[in-house]
Amino acid sequence: MHSLMKAVLLLGHGGLDQLVYREDVAAPTLGAGEVLVRVAAAAVNNTDINLRTGWYSRAGGGSSATSGHSAVSPEDGGWSGDALSFPRIQGADACGYVVETGMGVDQRRINERVLIDPIIRTRDGSVKYFGSDTPGAFAEFVAVPAENALVIRSNLRDEDLASFPCSYLAAENMLARAGVTRGEAILVTGASGGVGSAAVQLARRRGAHVHAVADPAKTEAILSLGATRVLPRNADLITELGRESIDVVLDVVGGPHFAQLLTVLRRTGRYACAGAIAGPVVELDLRTLYLKDLQLLGCTIPAPNVLRSLIGYIERREIRPLVSAIYPLRDIAAAQTAFLSKRHVGKIVLVP
User: Fold this and answer.
1) Best exposed site among 29, 64, 141, 200 by fewest CB in 10 Å?
2) Beta 19-26 vs 34-43: how paired, if at all?
3) Count of CB atoms within 10 A of residue 161's CB?
4) Residues contacting residue 276 through CB under 8 Å, at least 6 positions apart
5) Is the peptide bond between 256 and the residue preceding it cis, with omega within 30 degrees of 0?
């Protein structure tokens, strides 16, 4: 049906020069049980930059994902440590419309408006991440398993809906893994980013009291999402919050403040992590961990049907999108530059 399409190809590990916009890329062919989705909007995520720069590779060695490691081997360049092949199409977030169905899929699905669940679960029990392990949303069309194209009924813009899947899945997964309940005190780091701003909203939805860490210039925006208090990124958390004052830490930052995060946790507190934008290598005093009976939770793959629950939240207007800027897909380098500047609140979206 569609032979060629517009897409951004990632040619290899490195800088922004490794992203090439083309209009003659072969469109995907459908397999049995798949649907072809016309991508209406796609959002930028840390995972896009991490994969491009080789940050996931243990050979990269860097504490930051802002610079490209062109010398990194693709042998362990994926988020799971698996080998990568190039060129490839990235993009973990997508809102779009079903335009074709593969064998075994009801043709009545054509024209459905969908969000793509980025967690692709295979029959053998393994997991692939959309836009990292499989071709992603930085293209006009993408083929996905039919069960990963979830219908959404909303009057929000395509660009708004594309801001939800990846970040809100990560945030809801942290909240679920940590068992956050009404009335608990929560600390969210990186609260102005996609996952952080999602975590503020979703924790507040659960009735938690949210303390957030972010740039002071973004305080009003984060308070409007439901945070009780916003602390500057360089704040001494122990002085500001007090020792053993927080039930759960939701962290996407890591870096040099890690020890403070554990200090402010109450005994039996829970620390959940889904990122390390300030540095993946941290200092841990094991005495703090075991003497306080803390739980440390690494959070990547959510339980099945989490996106279905999020779609319900969206349709009932229990959470709202936070789109900072919209760029044409051909301007992906400018979009990623803006993303890395960290001046925005929420998500940056691309439109093919």
Assistant:
1) 29
2) unpaired
3) 26
4) 252, 253, 254, 255, 282
5) no
231: which strand partners? 213
Are residues 204 and 227 in contact, defined by beta-carbon separation less than 8 angstroms? yes
What residue spans in the chain does CATH classification 3.40.50.720 cover?
A: 166-298
Q: Check: CATH 3.90.180.10 for 4-164+321-351?
A: yes
Are the C-beta atoms of 247 and 226 separated by less than 8 Å? no
Domain range 166-298, its CATH number among 3.40.50.720, 3.40.50.360, 3.40.50.300, 1.10.3720.10: 3.40.50.720
**Residue the block writes with tokens 């919050």:** 241
In the chain, residues under CATH classification 3.90.180.10 are: 4-164+321-351
What is the C-alpha to C-alpha distance for residues 186 and 119, in angstroms, rounded to an integer? 26
Beta bridge partners of 82: none
Q: Please give the C-alpha separations between residue 256 and each of 252, 265, 292, 344, in angstroms, as whole numbers.
A: 13, 16, 21, 23
Q: What is the dihedral of CA 165, 166, 167, 168, to 10 degrees?
A: 40
What is the phi/psi pair of residue 130, to 5°?
-60, 130
Nearest to 308 by CA among 182, 179, 119, 128: 119
pTM over 0.90? The answer is yes
Mean residue pLDDT across the chain: 93
β-bridge pairing 185-188 and 209-213: parallel
Residue 293 has pLDDT above 70, yes or no: yes
Instruction: Tell me what pLDDT residue 37 has.
Output: 98
Token output for 161: 């809906």
8 A C-beta contact, residue 287 and residue 208? no
Q: How does residue 124 score in pLDDT terms, banded at 50, 70 and 90?
A: confident
- So what's the pLDDT on residue 75? 63
